[in-house]
Design brief:
Helix content is about 0%, strand content about 50%. By secondary structure, it is an all-beta fold.
């Protein structure tokens, strides 16, 4: 049995920043490949976003603890061929859950 049979590819544009002298540095592309387990949402369950809106998600992706935060609407692709966006991310004591 394989614990993490799926790979999630996530990419997005990072915001530009200013250094202490006021010089602007444009943001680049952030890209991650995350091993985990994707479970489809076959029952039409919903999640609540920070603003209170509720949306239906397609997959819950379970993986090891991640040291980064993925922004809402970051591009996402599973190795099974599904493409969409990140809806939410939560780091727990035992791992990370990403709603797609």
């Amino acid at each position: 049995m394989v614990r993490y049979p799926h790979t999630l590819h996530v990419w997005y544009m990072e915001d530009g920043t200013y250094d202490p002298t006021g010089d602007y540095f444009p943001g680049g592309t952030a890209e991650y490949y995350i091993e985990g387990r994707a479970e489809p949402n076959g029952e039409g369950r919903m999640i609540t976003l920070e603003g209170g809106a509720q949306i239906v998600y397609n997959y819950m992706f379970y993986c090891r603890d991640q040291y980064f935060e993925l922004p809402y609407n970051a591009n996402a692709q599973l190795n099974s061929g599904w493409q969409g966006t990140v809806k939410r991310m939560a780091n727990n004591q035992t791992g990370t859950v990403i709603w797609l």
